[in-house]
Design goal:
Length: 268
Amino acid sequence: MKKKHLAISTALIALLVTGCGQNDTDGNASKDEEVVVEPITVELTVPETGEAEESIQLAAAVTQGDEKVTDASEVEYEIWEDGKKEDSWKVKSEQKTDGLYEAKAKFEHDGLYHVQVHVTARDMHTMPMKEITIGTGAVEGEAGTEAEGSHEHQHGAEGKESHEHHHGTEGFSMHFMEPKDVKVNESAMMMVHLQLDDKPLEKARVRLEVVVNDKTNEAQWVKLTEEKAGEYAGEVTFEAAGTASVTVHVENEEGLHEHETHEMTISK
């Protein structure tokens, strides 16, 4: 009888030891296993041609792996005539079906236009771009005449909003996410998304040159940190109310040097 009890006890101990060993192995495997986040992808649909003053359908299908992304925080179209990025305008989208964000745009006159969609979803950002030819396209000698150098553009409808661009590198894109309701003595988060040839521009040197009320001698320089691939962020605190000029300077070791200026209002 004692031998029988001894055999049962030995078997139970063996099972317990085996079970503990399996749990430890599983635990180590889960710790060592890396979680790979699938990137979002955007299929941008823009007609190759269209006519002036007619409504043009734009669509962006946003997915993550096999899943349709229905919770994008931003899907906005930016449109400009070739060589006139400083005169770009933006069109908000609507999600008509799961993961499909649509918008309609009208073009006042013939020309070659660029349509870029800015998509932010699940802590990721991408901004693919396509071209559309309206009517007979660009008039020879006009397109691209302002493609190089610095440009300024003013909108008076909702206060002053000035943009200055210097994009000399082919395939380079910048998206400055201007903070809302910026107030004196409160930190404001500044974020910039950069792409080169439709891929995130990594390991760039990104700085903000901040000038308030045209006091260039009191310019504040703020270095942005790359939080994710192609996404740079940092905080700025304004000590006076008024109009702030924020110039984004981008450089890298390959000789790229781009800048873009935005104006914003600082309230008390």
